[in-house]
Amino acid sequence: SIYKSEIILFINKFFSFQSLRPYIIEIYRDLNTLSDINGVIKFYSSPLGKKLLEKESQAEIHLNQLIQKRVQENMPQIISWIQQKFLKNLPNNQINQEISAVH
Q1: pTM for the complete prediction?
Q2: Cα 74 to Cα 8: distance, rounded to the nearest angstrom
Q3: What's the rounded Cα separation, in Å, for the pair 84 and 103?
Q4: C-alpha dihedral sign at 91, 92, 97, 101
Q5: Where residue 95 falls among pLDDT bands split at 50, 70, 90?
Q6: Domain range summary for the chain, segments of one domain joined by +
Q7: How does DSSP classify residue 65?
């Protein structure tokens, strides 16, 4: 479907780690003290912490691949759901305009 790559780009744009990073930092800053953060830095500087970081980055890669695969596998259902939820409320002439704008 022509929508698969567009939806994957959309998901990556708004839900990738890089796009969420500022919000993640803010959440951690709100939930942790400076002492907590220094303790975390100390842990991740240790051999075990470094190993965990390496494994976490590998897990993140696999998780991103899984999410992309699941989006691709379920694209027909996603498109159908979007059409049912959003297009059913538009007047017919507006639906035709929306479809024409995509093509």
Answers
A1: 0.44
A2: 12
A3: 19
A4: positive
A5: low
A6: 2-74
A7: H
